[in-house]
Amino acid sequence: MLLQIIDSFLLNYNVGQALLLGFVVLTLGAIPLGSRRILGINFVVFGLIFALTPTDLVPVHYLFLGITLMVIGPMLYVTASD
Predict the structure, then answer these.
(1) What pTM, to 2 d.p., does this model score?
(2) pLDDT digits over 1-49, tens only?
(3) Interatomic CA distance for residues 23 and 40, integer angstroms
(4) Would residue 7 count as lying in a domain?
(5) What does the DSSP 8-state code read for residue 32?
(6) 51 within a domain of the structure (yes/no)
(7) What span, in angstroms and rounded, lies between the C-alpha atoms of 22 and 8?
(8) CA pair distance 71, 62, nearest whole angstrom
(9) How far is the C-alpha of 49 from the C-alpha of 16, rounded, in Å?
(10) Cα–Cα distance between 36 and 39 in angstroms, integer?
């Protein structure tokens, strides 16, 4: 039953939009922790996911989002003072 609800919801969106929703939710969940290292790791992981997702499934601008996240993520990680 629950899987049918999730499936009917996700049919209206492409894979990139679902990944973007996951990225936003996990980033908002990591912000209260106050650790820029965790945010940096989150950015790098989702950058890799966006960059490695086949372009058949998502528009090409998600590739550029992935590259951007892979650039910003290590900068956040290195500059963290945790």
Answers:
(1) 0.83
(2) 888 988 888 788 888 898 999 999 999 999 999 899 999 999 999 999 9
(3) 12
(4) no
(5) G
(6) yes
(7) 17
(8) 14
(9) 10
(10) 5
